[in-house]
Amino acid sequence: MTTNDTNTRKSIRQKHILDLDGLNQSDIQLIFENTDSMMEVLNRGIRKVPALRGKTIITLFYESSTRTRVSFEQAGKILSADVINVSSDSSSSKKGESLYNTALTLQAMKADAIVIRHQHSGAGYFLAQQMNSTSIINAGDGMHAHPTQSLLDLYTIKKHLGTISSKKVVIVGDLLYSRVARSNLWGLTTMGANIVLCGPNTLLPQDFLDSRLREANHPFRRIQIEENIDNALEGADVVMTLRLQSERQKAGHLPSLREYSRRFGITSKRLKIANPNAIIMHPGPMNEGVEIESDVAHGPQSVIESQVTTGVAIRMAILYDLITGNHSEKEL
Amino acid sequence: MPTAPFKSVQRVCQGSERFALPVWVARLLNASCRSGQRFFFGKSTSISYPSSALKNMSEKKIQTDVQMKRALTRISHEILERNSGAKDLILVGMHSRGVPLAFRIRGLISSYEGQTVDVGSLDIGLYRDDLSVKPQAAMKPTDISVDISGRIVVIVDDVLYTGRSIRAAMDAINDLGRPSQIQLAVLIDRGHRELPIRADFVGKNVPTSREEDVEVKLVEIDGLDEVVISSPIT
């Protein structure tokens, strides 16, 4: 009767977080509202609340990670959940157990949520199809998606610029292999940002040059592609640099790191082309001196460290929502 | 097709969200809802019923704006009397409707004592004991910017019912510091406690049954001040 919209919306409409393409604006707003509350908890002297007491979260990492795994673990622990870390080299997958069997085992142990990072795209989707009671959170699958990183990027932009809608966001670098960039395209499009992609031709996914993307009702129709970094940066509100994934550069996409750095590296000189109050973001880990100059990475316009703090709060909000939420439509 | 007389009836129906309906009209509305046909209004489907009528509930106003103001005035004086003044006080309103009530009590206290009392807001979403039973509500940020250690915290809420929210609020407050005392002020106490909790300052005691709904409306949120009790029609 008197409750407003945000009060009647109890939780997002999904049981799993696999990518951002299934979340609409009000889902993302709801996560942001809960993140505000979680930020307040993070700023307390005693960072512990009993919301997920007696719940179990398992992190299942088949790829290396520092900040994502630690921030999920910290998020779970602040909410009083029991967090168990499994990494591929110390688990039964070494003995040849399949992902399917590992997941069923973990579900049988009554895990409430499984956080998975895997080198193959779609691993999270596969798991989600097998689960009846456990929520799956994708913490990076191959070159496909990394939704929690994207949500924290969106939240960081909103906190620093007030709004995301109609801001010019330039994503620079290795777009071919970046799951962060892919998830951000969905999130930023949903929130109404103007997106410009910039990178060497060999590191642009070929689908972006496909004319079907330009069709009238395609969600990505307004995304621009620019090969000259100086043109791309003009009037930018947000500069999102991506890590050049050197472990994936064997295929010979680039003549040399030095050339890449000269043509696409973000330097303080180049940054002057962007809006004076533009913010610099990087999902980490950084190759300082390659895609971003050290002075820029640690300069006044950089929000890279605040991204990390926000990461914990966003993951708290997501764990809280998935584990306590009433997800009536239990589907993907 | 709505006709002219129908329109005027519709206006009465919408108005009844705010003004108590004559009993016979309410009965008629309910009878027509129950039977599934609106004999009164013909076949048009664009009628908006008062929400209480749709749920087979009758509404009764139990506190007017003037009565609410008097109750808050008395509560403010009682808080000052109990604590010998406003020193060390901090008022903590519980989201949603406890927050404007806390600000009103602060306004009243400063008009008597000439000194401003700290006010904070508290969301108990993370401390509820029914998180796995009931769907959660969207959280609002807790905002208590001062150190509460050694102070007298007065929790302010609109309705005291089972006492479970207050239990959660006390846990939340203890996580923020160690107050010298925690006291509780509520506008309405409707009984049915499930925990050993009692309010220190009560605006009005209202005997209710569990089937009834008590709803506090405040100008800051709902556009008017009143307390309404809705009961199922048997």
TrEMBL record, chain A:
Q: Which GO terms describe its cellular component?
A: cytosol
Q: Identify one Pfam family in the record.
A: OTCace_N
PROSITE patterns named in the record: CARBAMOYLTRANSFERASE
Q: Does the keyword Protein transport apply?
A: no
GO BP, one annotated term = 'de novo' UMP biosynthetic process
Q: Name one GO molecular function term.
A: amino acid binding
Domain annotation Aspartate/ornithine carbamoyltransferase carbamoyl-P binding: ranges: 15-158
Reported EC number(s) for this entry are 2.1.3.2
User: Keywords on this record?
Assistant: Pyrimidine biosynthesis, Transferase
Q: In which pathway does it act?
A: Pyrimidine metabolism; UMP biosynthesis via de novo pathway; (S)-dihydroorotate from bicarbonate: step 2/3
The protein's annotated catalytic reaction(s) are: carbamoyl phosphate + L-aspartate = N-carbamoyl-L-aspartate + phosphate + H(+)
Function text: Catalyzes the condensation of carbamoyl phosphate and aspartate to form carbamoyl aspartate and inorganic phosphate, the committed step in the de novo pyrimidine nucleotide biosynthesis pathway.
Its name, as the record gives it, is: aspartate carbamoyltransferase
* Annotated organism of origin: marine metagenome
